[in-house]
Design goal:
This protein has six helices and four strands, in the order αβαβαβαβαα. It has helices spanning 24-35, 58-86, 107-126, 172-184, 197-206, 208-227; strands spanning 40-43, 89-94, 133-140, 189-192. The mean pLDDT is 93.
Length: 230
Amino acid sequence: LEMSSLSEKDILVLRLDLTDRSSHEAATNNVLKHFGKIDVLVNNGGRSQRSLFVDTNLDVYTAIMELNYLGTISLTKHVLNHMIQRKKGKIVTVSSVMGIMGAPLASGYCASKHALQGFFNSLRTELTDYPEISIINICPGPVQSKIIQNVFTENLAKSIENSGDQSHKMPTDRCVRLTLVSAANDLKEAWVSDHPYLAVCYLWQYAPTWAWWLMNRMGKRRIQNFKSGV
């Protein structure tokens, strides 16, 4: 077993609420005070959604954008100020294949991930004077995690009843490894997914008419399963 060379001073854990944007500057300063620099920011906070738009309270859409989108860009803003001073750093954002495509029962989640994609792709174009600051978007497909247990539903007070089987999803450690490889190689965007989800990404990118046809077919079945509690 390989022994870690990390000591107590190499690790700092801070509690952070992405929706409490007024706390993000202090959190950034605490990290800088402890380590003296920030090399990498990984934006990995967010919640998914499982509900039909027609049944969903608009408060849910506000909450999704506050957390997934505005919380992420708030934290990024404070960390980026430091990286610009150093002229160096990596900002890795966990988006989703839902940032590339649209899917039923996840309209708010898809919207928040499309927002992240648009924001970070635009930010990259504003940082051309800083070639050593990398903006890296990671788009995972289904991954084994607690994301389903914590999804938004049609109203803020309701939690999901059936989280379903996760065995078909990509193991968490494989997703992490591929994310690290992507970040180490400064990939602007990486799709971290198995087939058939990966194939659907290619359809959305290169043959959207076929993707819409396929998603309508798949979506109908998914909605039927959702309504019958599967």
